[in-house]
Design goal:
Length: 255
Amino acid sequence: MDRREFLNISMASAAGMMTCSLQLNAERRPDKPGRVRAIAFDGFVIFDARAVAKRAEEVLAGKSNEFVNLWRTRQFEYSWLRTAGQQYRDFWHVTEEALIYAANSMKLSLSPEQRDRLMGIYRELPVWPDVPDALALFRESGIKLAFLSNFTAAMLDANLARAKLNGFFQDHLTTDRVRLYKPSPHAYQMGVDAFKLKREEIAFAAFGGWDAAGAKWFGYPTVWVNRTNGPVEELGVRPDVITTDISGLVTFVGS
C-alpha cells in the first residue's frame, strides 16, 4: 500500500470525526516528483486560540471581548512593526507588550496575578478536536511535520506537552531562528532549509489569511485552514485550498 492509498483509506474510515466530508480518489499511482513530502504548520492550525477569549472572560468578566480584540490586533501589529523596524523581540514578549497596551488602552489596572493568568493561556492552549487523528495519519504515511511559527520553542513545547502530542513534529522552526516574523520570506525559507526539500514538496498549513498569502508569495503549496470562515485577503494571491478544518489538508496531501 503506498502513502496516498494509506491516507485515503485511513481518512475515509475516520470521516465521521471530520466536519467536512472527504472526497478522496482511491486510485493507486506511483509517487512522482513534486508530491508533498512535508507539512509546515502555523501554530494556530493545531492549537485552539478560542481559549484566549475564555481565559480573558474568567479574568475580566464583562470586558473580555474588547480586551481580546485589542490584544490580538496589537500582538500581530507589533510583530510586523518590529520586523519592519528591525527591532526583534520574541513572540512571548510581543504578546506581553500587546497585553499591557490593551490594558492601558482600556484603563484597566491588572494585578501581577491577572497578567500571569492571561499570559499563561499561551502555554496551555488546547488542540482542535480534529488534530490528533490527522497527525497520526501523516506520521504513519511518512510525511515530515514541523511547526513554522511565530511562537517561541518554549511556547510550542509547553502546548505540545499539555496536549500529549510530543513526537509528531521535527525541531520547531520558530521565527526566533531568523529574528524576523512571518510573512518575511526569510521565515518561510526555514522550511526549505530544515526539510531539505524543494518548496513545492512542502505544504504550508496556515491559520490566518495573511499567513496563507505570505506562504503563497513564497511559493509553498498552501492550504488555508480557515476555521473562522474569514474572507480571502486581497493581496493578489489565493491559497491552493481553503478548508474549514484539517480534513482539507489531508485531502490535499493525499491527492
